[in-house]
Structure formats: C-alpha cells, structure tokens
Design a protein that fits this description.
Order of helices and strands: EEHEEEHEHHEHEEHEHHEHHEHEHEHEH
Largest sheet: 8 strands, parallel, barrel
Structural class: alpha/beta
CATH superfamily: Glycosidases
CATH topology: TIM Barrel
Number of helices: 14
CATH class: Alpha Beta
Helix content: 25-40%
Number of strands: 15
C-alpha cells in the first residue's frame, strides 16, 4: 500500500535523500471519488493566526490530508507562558531495521508543529534498535529534521521492548534470556514477561559477564557520543526509561499487552532471582516462612480486589504483618532499581546542559479503595494512610530529576463504572508530594483526545493551574490519527488557547510554502500505537 505526501519548496525542509525512508505517509492511501472539498479551520483573528492556516482536505470519503500553508518562519522566540509544549513522535519513527519510517511525512509534520508554535518533539530511542546496529544515523537524521524545523528535542531512552510496533530488546539480551529465562520478570503462573529485565538482576553478571546496569551505561554513553553536537542547542531533556513502557513500575498488567484492563494486576516476583532475594530478606527479618513465595491469596490480573483475601478493604492480608513485610520488600526492589538507574544516568549526563527526567505511571483504577491494589502490584506501596510516592519523590529529588506523570487528560467522570477509578485524586496526590520535595513535574496525556471528550479542557486546567511547577507537557503521539480531520482541529485549538503571544509584524513569515501531508485510514491496531 502506498501513502502520499506532496511538498513544494522541499529545500526548506529536510532533504528527502538525507535519510532512508520506507514510505511517504503514516498510513495507506486509498483514493475514492473524484471531487475534492476543502474544510478550513480558521484561527481567531490575531496577527499571528491570520497569517497561518491549517486545513483538512477530503478526497471522496476515504482520503484526507492536512495542508499547511506557511511562509518561511523567522527564528523562533522563547515564549512566556505555562511551560514548554511537546508532541511525541511515533514510537517506530526509526524501525527495528534502523530505518526512518515515513520520513517525508515526519518532516512535513514537524513543520506543521513548528508553525503552530509547539516548542519541540519527543524522540523515542530504542535500546535494541540502536545497540544492535551500532549505527545512530537514522536517529541523528530525525534529530536534524527537528533542528531544521526550529524545534527542541526531548529524547526518551527506552530500555524496554514494544510488541506493537515491534521494537525488541538487544539481541544479546534476548540470547541471555533464552539461556536463562529467569532474568525476565515472571508471574505466579510461571509466564515470562519479556518487556524488560527483572530488577533483581540489575547488578548480576547475567549478560555475557556484564550486569544490566553496565549495559545500560554503555547505551547511555554511546548515545552521548553520537549526539554531542545536539546537547543544549537542540536536545534540552533526556528521559530515562525505568521499566515497562518507560515507566517506573513492575509489568503488572496482563501479558496480552492490553492497556484497557480494569483488574488489579499481578505481583511479578516469581523469577528465581526475585524469589532468592525475597527468601534472603525474610530470613534477615526472622520470618523465613514469609520468603517462600508471593501472596497466595492475591487475585489474578483481571479480577477485582474482592477475589481472594489479600486486597480486601477490611480484613485483607495487606494489613497483616506478613502483608506489610511483603509490600515493603516489593516496593523496595522497585525503588532500588530506580535509584540505581538514575545514578548511572546522572553520572553519564550530569555535566551536560540538559534536564534529566523519568516517568511514573498514573495507576488510577481502584484508587478509591483502602488497599489500592493496582498500585500495589505495580510496586507503589500507596495504601490508605500511607503515601507511596514520598520515597519515589525523594529519589527524584536526589538526582534532580523531573517526574513525568501521564494521564493529565483524564477526568473521574469518564472512567469505567465499577472500578473505583479516581485519576484526578491520584494526580493531585502525586503532584502535591513532588511539590513538597521540590521535584519538577512534567505532564503527558494518556491517549489521543477524542471528539466530545473533556480531555483538552482537562489538560489545559492542569497545565495552567500548575504553571509555577509544571515544567512541560508532551502530547502523544504524532501519526495518522493525530492529523485526521477529527483530531487535528482540536489540537490546533488547544495550542492556540495556551496563551500564545502575538507575533510582531516583522515576524510575519514570507516566501509562501504549501505542504500537503496525506493522512489516511489506518487499522485500529495502528491507531492504538499513538496512545502508547
């Protein structure tokens, strides 16, 4: 299938042959009908917005394209306002074959974002893609495209794998896991989780004589060397992946990879290295029987807290001495991993003019219960009367690390019934804890905001209400649906409303250019990728 992109004056954007590109658009292109109708989305009548227009063109009932009419822009000025605004690039902007995906479409999209006044983009870098090839040229090409568009970069270093799109761990890690599967997280049924390495092996020589921490450091140093010319001027932030999906947590979600589950999740403590550490810890505390296994009365992934006794609000095992012992040990392993990995990152990047950041999940299902089970299985000991984010914030403060919190588009009223979900309450708790410890906070959305939802309104409330502490906000992610007629006008209105300053007359662009970015119908699975 072919995807289309038309661009005039291509010299103003990244040269098309400067990087390998598989295709020219984000999705397949299917032409239907012969007529073309244009629907214009007019911005308010300010000097800046009268001179900038974003249109959506429909060709028949199938093909749609974003058309950006602009004039060669002057150097961007730092703007006052509620914080920096970023847009995440596709997770597979560089594929598992180390090829820039949809390169011309990415270049056109970057110019559209710069035209809107977005500060920068987030570039996801896969540990496996970069280290298996030893070739940074594709990632460097994307960075150059952002630089040429006048955008800043927040680079995310991913130490986990993705199933969709396929972005595996390094081959050396896969080989080690094939020899010793226990270096992977394991659930109660013995299923291995290939998302990332078990935290229990962080400092064990399980990777052909090297420890995972040593392998992570090698990746960081290789990245630093390759991108030396971009730090400070283009790259302003480096986000360290601390676990599955880049978040500080255990892979407690169901192994199917669904991000819509409403159960409690499961403890991930059944690989031999985690069990050995649990056994040792129990013996040191004088209760060796507590170290034989994880909780026997905990529910399964998709079950409610009422299945089994462990998470019951009243009389649950989580409140017993055993429950307190286990949960303290389990969260301690998570905190130790986060502290150790941020220490490595600080050592490698500490002298650069960039900010360090890492992501903490917003696990809001069952938050309106006393035990808060979905947070416990993910490693956050955040129960009734106990702030499980205090120790997390202390670690982030220790390393001068910004905490990225997703879910700033979520409202309590739009959550599924029956799962006691309170994203607004949990977000308020985490942000309040960060404020007490002097930790900067950056925000993200959980998925593309849909028509008819209150998502953009909620994002704006969070960004503006916390403008003294919210360092930046990143909107995920660029792709076919991002530029669709249903979504693009919502996003442009959101950006317009975020206190953009007026452009002076001498800042008005000249040298008319027209970019036409084809956005087409894509399978549901591809659309889901944009919310990752």
């Amino acid at each position: 299938m072919e995807a289309g992109l038309m661009a005039k004056q291509a010299a103003a954007v990244a040269k098309p042959n400067a990087f390998p590109a598989r295709s020219l658009g984000f999705g397949s292109s299917v032409r239907g009908g012969s007529g073309t109708s244009r629907i214009g989305f007019e911005a308010p009548a300010s000097v800046a917005w009268r001179k900038r227009s974003i249109q959506v063109a429909r060709q028949g009932a199938i093909r749609s394209e974003v058309v950006v009419e602009e004039k060669a822009s002057p150097p961007r000025k730092d703007k006052a306002g509620p914080g920096r605004l970023y847009v995440g690039l596709p997770l597979d902007v560089v594929s598992d074959g180390n090829v820039v995906n949809h390169g011309k479409a990415i270049a056109a999209g970057l110019r559209a974002l710069a035209l809107l006044g977005v500060d920068g983009v987030e570039l996801p870098i896969s540990w496996g893609v970069a280290m298996d090839s030893g070739d940074w040229s594709s990632y460097l090409a994307v960075a150059a495209m952002a630089r040429d568009a006048g955008l800043r970069l927040r680079v995310s270093l991913h130490l986990h794998c993705h199933r969709r799109p396929r972005l595996p761990l390094p081959k050396s890690v896969d080989s080690a896991a094939a020899t010793d599967p226990d270096i992977l997280f394991t659930d109660r049924a013995g299923r291995r989780r290939a998302d990332c390495l078990s935290f229990a092996v962080d400092d064990l020589p399980v990777l052909d004589g090297r420890t995972p921490m040593e392998a992570y450091e090698e990746f960081f140093r290789s990245f630093r060397l390759a991108f030396a010319d971009f730090f400070g001027s283009v790259i302003t932030d480096i986000t360290i992946g601390l676990g599955p999906n880049g978040e500080l947590r255990y892979p407690s979600f169901p192994p199917t990879g669904s991000n819509r589950f409403t159960g409690v999740g499961e403890f991930q403590c059944y690989d031999k290295y985690m069990l050995a550490d649990l056994k040792r810890h129990a013996e040191e505390t004088g209760s060796p029987l507590w170290g034989l296994s994880g909780p026997h009365d905990a529910p399964g992934y998709n079950q409610s807290p009422d299945f089994g006794n462990f998470f019951k609000d009243h009389g649950g095992s989580w409140e017993t001495p055993y429950g307190q012992f286990f949960l303290s040990w389990y969260t301690g392993k998570l905190l130790s991993h986060g502290d150790g990995l941020l220490s490595v990152a600080s050592e490698v990047f500490g002298d650069l003019p960039v900010a360090l950041s890492a992501k903490v999940p917003l696990l809001h299902c069952w938050h309106d219960t006393r035990s808060r089970p979905s947070q416990l299985t993910a490693g956050f000991y955040n129960t009734d009367g106990r702030d499980g984010y205090e120790d997390v914030a202390k670690i982030f403060a220790k390393h001068s690390c910004t905490m990225i919190i997703p879910g700033m588009d979520l409202t309590d009223g739009e959550q599924p019934q029956g799962v006691r979900s309170c994203p607004q309450s949990l977000l308020s708790q985490v942000m309040g804890t960060c404020k007490r410890h002097g930790v900067k906070v950056a925000g993200e959305n959980s998925s593309l905001v849909r028509v008819g939802t209150a998502g953009f309104t909620k994002i704006k409330e969070n960004v503006l209400a916390e403008k003294s502490t919210l360092d930046s906000f990143t909107y995920h992610r660029m792709g076919a649906e991002f530029f669709s007629p249903d979504h693009w006008p919502l996003f442009t209105e959101f950006i317009r409303s975020m206190a953009q300053p007026e452009m002076e007359k001498d800042d008005i662009p000249s040298n008319l250019e027209r970019l036409s970015l084809s956005i087409n119908s894509v399978p549901g699975n591809d659309r889901e990728l944009q919310s990752a």
